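Progress against Task 2.4 (sequence-to-structure conversion) is shown through the following example record, which the project officer requested during the mid-term review.
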Amino acid sequence: MEDHRLKSYCLVVETKSFSRAAQAKHMTQSAMSRLVKSLEEELGITLLHRKGRTVVPTPEGRLFYEHARKILEDYTKLEQDISAATRLAKGALRLGASRTPAVHLLPQVIYDFSKAHPAIRIDLSVCKTSDVLKDLRDGKIDVGIVEGDVVDSVFFADVIAGDEIVIIAPENHPVTKKKTVTVQDLAAEPFILPDQGSGTRELIDAYFREAGIDAKRIKVRMTIGSPELIVQMVRAGLGLAFASKWSVFAGIKEGTVKIVKMPGRKLTRNFFLLGIEGEPAPAAREFRQFMKQYRFFIPF
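Structure tokens generated for the chain above:
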């Protein structure tokens, strides 16, 4: 129902680039440029200026962008209201998830949910926990799935699965042979850590603080945003890492990585289904109900 030209124009303004907007829409840059050009010709104004490789809206273009966003939001609200009025769960479910649950929990969930609700289209974005929370707060997504505790009272949070963070090392690493591993042993080893802002990184930082390890003493060899790539780097012998049991299951089964006995307390956490308090859109309501009854396979 929405005008694809408006959506394309808004994407160009938001990404500040024809090429990035075209890539996001899976179209050529020239096709994206023609869409915006057709708007300018129809309106008789210049909407965008190029500054090197960056595209910025003119004053008229900024005004047009604000109205275009409002129109697109009204289209979405109209679809949701019609769906609610007819009690049909259809339309789009805007779902945001941090990477670990997106990769290890959601594929089977989405498959089963789509079988039960074929009329619902799922738009999934995968990003850091902090970005999922921001997108949910800004109304860009309907439902979020993240790891770790969420203390912001603006969200409701339902536990959907448990998790444990373990320390892993290459299969033949000396630390895997030790019956007792001390915090001093850990401080002497290079680590591959998740990006700042991820739920896993927050849990790791808290663990180091509780263990009395100065963050400056940690030998951070590299930081990576992908839990799966972290496991691959450990396999390659680049260092130790903290990782979810969900993401190391295959490596443990194959014997290419091993779990290191962790000093101190276990690092446990939950995966949460998040939303904004209030009446959800029909598709989001159906997904929330579906998730409350879903049962996950626990890795080990």
